[in-house]
Design brief:
By secondary structure, the protein is α/β, with parallel strands linked by helices. It folds into 2 domains: 2-121, Rossmann fold (3-Layer(aba) Sandwich); 126-375, no CATH class. The protein is built from 13 helices and 17 strands. The strands form 4 sheets. Strands 9-10-15-14-13-16 form a 6-stranded antiparallel barrel. Strands 1-2-3-4 form a 4-stranded parallel beta sheet, with helices on both faces. It is elongated, with a radius of gyration of 23 Å. It starts with a strand and ends with a strand.
Length: 376
């Protein structure tokens, strides 16, 4: 993942000092003359005169783009900027970082590594789509090299019927059928990075929602998305990578200035401090889950259905729980850093809220994935 580049004209002692300082933040350096296959390599310009080596590294690795870091010493930053310009001229996305000195760059190096690793993890994802084939599935295969296995609802329904109830789900929720749904979802999540289920066709036929199974499996560090939405699923995978949580996938309810309310009938159990069962909002069927979000600061992301646009913003929780009669059961009012016109700016309805401030990292990952980014 990480490569250190230096020219022979510069002091070997300086290069060794840079390597010693940088290595704890980015991990073991790979050989730039024989790079491994990479998606988004992290290229550290230890000195100037390294642009040609960087371009050859990216080419040899078959990379889709690159993350670059430059420093204030010995024309390092100059080479990083030159490399950025050359790669962008070749049509490759680049994110570049710099520090006035390599000795004051620990946080930036850590951020650069996290961005490179997160972006790389979103290429070649193994996904299961429960329902029917969609154009979105076809597109994500072409654009990001995902493997999307489509499992017909009839196959999933049979798996539910034959499943032994998930014991934890049965103990938590007191519903054997919901526990069987959780067990079937767990089965399809084995060996997959992401599962997305087309909820409404399933609940209308089976007369029960998958909401509780999603709440439990996401808390178990599986990543399961609602409504067959693979773009929201990508945002959830990003949340998992940056924060350890799946994130909360939510519908927009309304916005007013810098405030907005979001809601959904499920939420990962490890993201709430309290929860209770309620009838599912639209259908009245069992079950929806009303939870009160546990954190105060969130990063909100939304990705367009065609994976070409994204929005990212910091949002502070103003109110959580279940306080509206006319919305899905887990509800939250957030305050963004500025007034946001969701009707004009949101790239999609679904927003994924992940605990903490990782807005800059998320935006940089989306840039590497060649999405235009709006900041809320």
């Amino acid at each position: 993942m990480a490569y250190l580049l230096a020219s022979e004209i510069h002091s070997p002692q300086h290069v060794a000092e840079v390597e010693t300082y940088v290595k704890p933040y980015v991990g073991v350096f790979r050989n730039p003359r024989a790079p491994a296959p990479e998606k988004f390599p992290l290229v550290i310009h230890a000195t100037g005169g390294t642009t040609a080596a960087a371009l050859e590294l990216v080419r040899s690795a078959g990379a889709r783009g690159a993350v670059l870091v430059g420093f204030g010493e010995n024309n390092s930053f100059a080479s990083a900027l030159h490399t950025k310009a050359e790669l962008e001229a070749m049509g490759l996305p680049v994110v570049a970082y710099h520090c006035p000195s390599y000795t004051e760059c620990g946080d930036v190096l850590t951020k650069a590594r996290r961005v490179a690793e997160a972006a790389s993890s979103l290429v070649g994802v193994r996904a299961v789509l429960i329902g029917s084939e969609t154009y979105q599935a076809e597109l994500v295969r072409r654009r990001f090299g995902w493997s999307v296995e489509v499992t017909p609802l009839s196959v999933f329904e049979e798996a539910v019927a034959n499943a032994e109830p998930d014991q934890e789900a049965e103990a938590l929720f007191g519903d054997v059928k919901a526990a069987k749904v959780a067990a079937a979802l767990r089965k399809f999540a084995e060996g997959a990075d992401l599962v997305a289920i087309q909820c409404f066709p399933f609940l209308m036929k089976s007369r029960i929602t998958p909401c509780l199974g999603l709440a439990l499996l996401n808390a178990r560090r599986r990543t399961v998305a609602c409504e067959g939405d693979l773009s929201a699923g990508l945002a959830m995978l990003l949340a998992r990578r940056l924060t350890g949580y799946s994130g909360w996938i939510a519908n927009a309810v309304y916005g007013r200035g810098d405030e907005a309310v979001f809601a959904h009938c499920t939420v990962s159990l490890d993201m709430v401090k309290t929860w209770r069962l309620m009838p599912h909002f639209e259908s009245g069927l069992p079950h929806g889950l009303a939870g009160e979000l546990a954190h105060q600061l969130y990063t909100a992301v939304s990705i367009s259905p065609r994976f070409d646009k994204a929005a990212v913003g910091r949002a502070r929780l103003e109110r959580g729980g279940n306080f509206l009669q006319h919305a899905c059961r887990t509800q939250a009012a957030f305050r963004f850093e500025r007034a946001v016109k969701l009707e004009a700016e949101a790239p999609a309805n679904h927003h994924v809220f992940m605990p903490g401030d990782v807005a800059d990292e998320a935006a940089d990952v989306f840039r590497l994935l060649a999405m235009s980014v709006t900041r809320y």
